[in-house]
Amino acid sequence: MFSERTGFIIWVHDIKAARNLEKYGTVHYISKKMHYVVMYVNADRAEETAKNIRRLSYVRKIERSYRNEIQTEYSSDIPDKTSYYGL
């Protein structure tokens, strides 16, 4: 149903020009203070899209988001240590 998505953090020189990144993927957030854009693109064309974005004059640096690789399901096999620190 949904295609696999990859996140990019794109550091830019100009925020107004960063609005043009909409044509490469879904812009999730634009930071006016720190000059970066968080956007999501299709995973099957992520490298090709990153190469095209790097060529833009207002782009400083591109970082890939590792959110997909972070473990989000936890097991409770480890005993709870809060009982040891009771009052």
Topology:
Layout: E1 5-12, H1 15-18, E2 26-31, E3 36-42, H2 46-54, E4 59-64
Antiparallel strand pairs: 1-3, 1-4, 2-3
Can you tell me about this structure?
By secondary structure, this protein is of the alpha+beta class. The protein has one domain (5-68): Peptidase S8 propeptide/proteinase inhibitor I9 (Alpha-Beta Plaits). It is built from 2 helices and 4 strands. Strands 2-3-1-4 form a 4-stranded antiparallel sheet, covered by helices on one side. The radius of gyration is 19 Å and the shape is elongated. This is DUF2129 domain-containing protein. Keywords: Cytoplasm. Pfam families: DUF2129.
Relevant terms:
alpha+beta; 87 residues; Alpha-Beta Plaits; 4 strands; 15% helix; 2 helices
